[in-house]
Design a protein that fits this description.
single chain; UDP-n-acetylglucosamine1-carboxyvinyl-transferase, Chain; Enolpyruvate_Tfrase_sf; alpha+beta; cell cycle; 2 domains; four-stranded mixed sheet; 14 helices; UDP-N-acetylglucosamine 1-carboxyvinyltransferase activity
Length: about 450
């Protein structure tokens, strides 16, 4: 097992470029299955979850060609539908939560699909009902085999329908959109997710010949077409990385420029960090974060304690709440972090408390942070990364802490962050990869 050894308390300096967006990649890559023509995609992040999906596409019969470091072409001309029944597919599909995203395109183009119950982060229940209810509304029939933990779906006659989603699920919306673009008639999706990643998918599909209107709103209208063609697409930078780097700069008193951030697509993210007292400037399409000895959390207008909560876009993304929580530990003031959308994402705070942070975990969804205003540094400890976002939050804490920290189970971090140790070393961080077994306790 690999681990990171980190010597903290060092000010960093320099420029860092965010990778392509992981959450966009899983949708965009699945969409290549909708056409037999060539689709070229650039700014693809070189991370495990994305590489596993590219490998799965290859196993399905897609011709995959790497054109550059972050650019691939895909040609889904000859798809092997028998692959669904293979043990290889069950093993690979079950180990990758993003594999659910191939169902919509395959239903649309071939009228059938199968998927093992997907894996992914251990952050509480993450329902797939939204996906399947949407497919059912379009006329698909699915059977869950509980013994094999496997879904079989038949969609030989997809028809457009009115669909009111029970939750504004990003992956659920994307999957239903991909199924609907080749269905007969008109599909209306209300309470649709409207994240920039979903907008990117819809714009790409329209370039391929789809007819989707309402992009950027929660009401999408899709007129089914009979065929889609090829296209070229460039993915957005990863907004979660951008937020992580803002937090890193504040915690370590570093001067960092985050390059090519597509600022207009970041929504409220810069403003939420400003509420924590962090200074940041937009410079063209870059974000400059100056070195700050102190930062103070805002209060509400009436003087009450600030609450930062996640919400569907254009609200604050749940993926950055753990970063905000860590950053608040070194701020002046107090904040209530309310994680509404997932139920176990705050369970890493015990590690921060061990490092010296003052946090009260109220329940699985809420934590109150009493900022220590950098009166003392967090102390380095050994810890294990429970999921991608908590892992990076602990990494940021370790980089700001006094002494040495060891983070085990870094495979979780690397599912979402490309070459993170190399990129941080370029800023001056003391971080090295070591082989180490996680502690048994």
């Amino acid at each position: 097992m690999n681990a990171f050894e980190i010597t903290g308390g060092i000010k960093l300096k320099g420029e860092i470029t965010p990778q392509g967006a992981k959450n966009e990649a899983l949708q965009i890559l699945s969409a290549v299955l909708l056409t037999e023509e060539k689709v070229t995609i650039s700014n693809i992040p070189d991370i495990k979850d994305v590489n596993k999906l590219i490998e799965l596409l290859g196993d399905l019969g897609v011709t995959v060609e790497r054109l550059d470091k972050d650019t691939y072409s895909f040609e889904a001309k000859n798809i092997n539908l028998d692959f669904f029944q293979s043990d290889v597919f069950k093993a690979k599909g079950g180990g990758l939560r993003g594999s659910i995203m191939i169902v919509g395109p395959l239903l649309a183009r071939f009228g059938k699909a199968a998927i093992p119950k997907p894996g992914g982060d251990k952050i509480g229940r993450r329902r797939l009902d939204t996906h399947f209810i949407g497919f059912e509304k379009l006329g698909a029939k699915f059977v869950y085999d509980s013994k094999k933990a496997f879904f079989n779906v038949d969609a030989t006659n997809l028809q457009g329908a009115y669909i009111l989603l029970d939750e504004a699920s990003v992956t659920g919306t994307a999957n239903i959109v991909m199924a609907a673009v080749l269905a007969k008639g008109t599909t209306t999706i209300y309470n649709a997710a409207c994240e920039p990643y979903l907008q990117q998918l819809c714009k790409m599909l329209n370039r391929m010949g789809a007819k989707i209107s309402g992009i950027g709103s929660n009401l999408l209208t899709i007129e089914g077409v009979t065929k889609l063609g090829g296209t070229e697409h460039r993915m957005l930078p990863d907004m979660i990385e951008i937020g992580s780097f803002i937090g890193l700069a504040a915690m370590t008193e570093s001067e960092i420029t985050i390059k090519n951030v597509c600022y207009d697509e970041l929504g409220v993210i810069p403003e939420v960090f400003r509420k924590l007292g962090i200074k940041l400037e937009r410079r063209g399409d870059d974000i400059f974060v100056p070195s700050q000895k102190h930062y103070e959390i805002d209060t509400f207008i009436d003087g009450s304690i600030l609450t930062i909560a996640d919400a569907p876009w254009p609200g604050f993304t749940p993926d950055l709440l753990s970063i905000v929580l860590v950053v608040a530990t070194q701020a002046k003031g107090n904040v209530l972090i309310h994680q509404k959308m997932f139920e176990s994402r705050l369970f890493f705070v015990d590690k921060l408390i061990d490092m010296g942070a003052q946090i009260i975990l109220c329940d699985p969804h809420r934590a109150t942070v009493n900022g220590i205003d950098k009166k003392y540094k967090l102390r380095g400890i050994s810890m294990t990364s429970p999921d991608i976002r908590a892992g990076v939050s602990l990494l940021i804490a370790a980089l700001s802490a006094e002494g040495k920290s060891t983070i085990y189970n870094i495979e979780q971090i690397e599912r979402g962050y490309q070459d993170i140790d190399t990129r941080l070393r370029a800023l001056g961080a003391q971080i090295k990869r070591v082989n180490a077994d996680a502690p048994s306790h």
